[in-house]
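Something for you to look into today, if you have time. Could you write out one complete protein record for me, on any chain you like? Leave the record below and I will have a look.
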Amino acid sequence: MPTETPQIFHGDTRASENPADCLKSFNHAMRQQSMTVSTEKLDAFGDYLGTSSQAEMWFKSLQPSSKATWATFITACEAHWPPVKIAEKTKAEYEKELLDHTLQSAEVGKKTTLYDQECWTHVAWAAKMLQLATSAGITQSTLMIWQVRSTLPDIVKDLLKDKEYTDWVGFTKAVMELKGSRLVEKQEQHNRQAQELNALRIDLARVQQRAPAPSPVDTLQNQLSRISVNTLNPPIAPSGGNRYTRTPATQNPQPTYSHQPTTTTAPQQPMTVTDEMKANIRLLITSFPHHPDTTAGRTAYAAQITQWNVKWGENSQVTHETGYLLKPGMAMICSGECFSCGTHGHNSHNCVLPPGDTARLERKEAAWRAASSRVLGAFNRFTATPISLVYAYGNEQFGEGEQSEGKGDGSV
């Protein structure tokens, strides 16, 4: 092991010096040289003081009694340069630092250095969080875990198991065990989706900047105002204790399409579907996340409805400018679904749910699904999870056949 060379000590409170650290460094070097006699160490100590520095002048003026032994010399040093007592952080300060130490979305899937070794950023983040939790004295509790988890990037939260962590050790371990390569894949997928959404916004801005002469968007608004969900009497389901449930279908539905004609006597002009219309409707679909049928999903859906009503009014019609929200757990929009109940395997003309049934979709959602399918077609039919309507009567269950709503070509 190479011999350590102590730094020259000046003793003038410069930021690069710490008197206690200088003494430690000197002691360590003397032990390496097997120099343990007090007089020898004291003679050598003067060689590590800056020329004409405050430390050298103090050392030369030191009384002989203070140089009698190394122990008395250390006492004299600490009297002249008393050890600095650090400002210890309170528990509240550690908790605040813990909340402020966030993992940014841009950092996910990248590498950094921890303890002079390369590691993934989420691993370094988890190690720091465990240190802060230990300093705050909450390592063995669940305190603040869910507040911190809620600030994690969506990519990380999606890969974490949806379970209740019992302490900080378990939580940080779960984060550390996430595979970096998987996070890289999720990050790349997120970036592609963000680019596509940005491109749709640019297309929409171009449409809005063009002079209306005549505007296809105005034509779309007029068509949407005339679209309604068919309310013909559905087939009569078995009576008495019926229960309606939705389950994944066993095969993909084959889409067919229908559009209810207006009730006015004036002939309707066919709507010309343009690329601008499609971009506008696609942007609205992307802007309204479709939540799962969970407690969190239903809560988020209720918040969406409230925001929509505040912005457009509860009695407003669904148009190309407003769009509408999708009920949690229902079929993906534009997937050949029934516009009455939001499941696959049939259309609104033969939906078994009677008018007024609580399981039927809200009329605004039904109109939005019908309008979107009319403009875009069932372009999601091959990627959507098939959902079928199953109703129970007694101990028997009855399912729906294979029919679909929408345009047959599904062109987009």
